[in-house]
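dumping this here before i forget
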Amino acid sequence: MTQQLRTQEKLVLLAELEKRVKSVKDDLRKEFQAGAVPGDRLTAVLDGQKLGSVTYTKGREAWKHNDPAATLAWAKEHAPHLVDSKEVIPDAHLTALKKEPVTADGELIPGFEPVVGDPYASIRPEKNAGELIEAGLASGALSWTDVLELEQ
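structure:
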């Protein structure tokens, strides 16, 4: 017979479970990424039904604003409407510039540089993944002990 769990026991148990899930998930991501190239996609199947997919996604492209003084100097000369009375570029204008800091002529606005993030594993469960997991647990086809790589 199992112990009747109160809210506090459940909270502590779930906190520990979260740590274990994160650790196992991090290790599995590294394992997946070790042999993958961006664009690789694998399908997860449970009892013959699609559970979801894991894709090795290329890093996100973004702009890093690394020299506010250079951007301000450029704005004063080329786009004075972006500069307020305090001689700064307000956050709303700066946010717009960060989306694509390139002039109409295709010139990069000073103070920005392109950056590309690291590739990463993108995990996309199917809408019915929860139901498939519950059915797998109920039938014995799936065990959290195996998923979490727990020693028995």
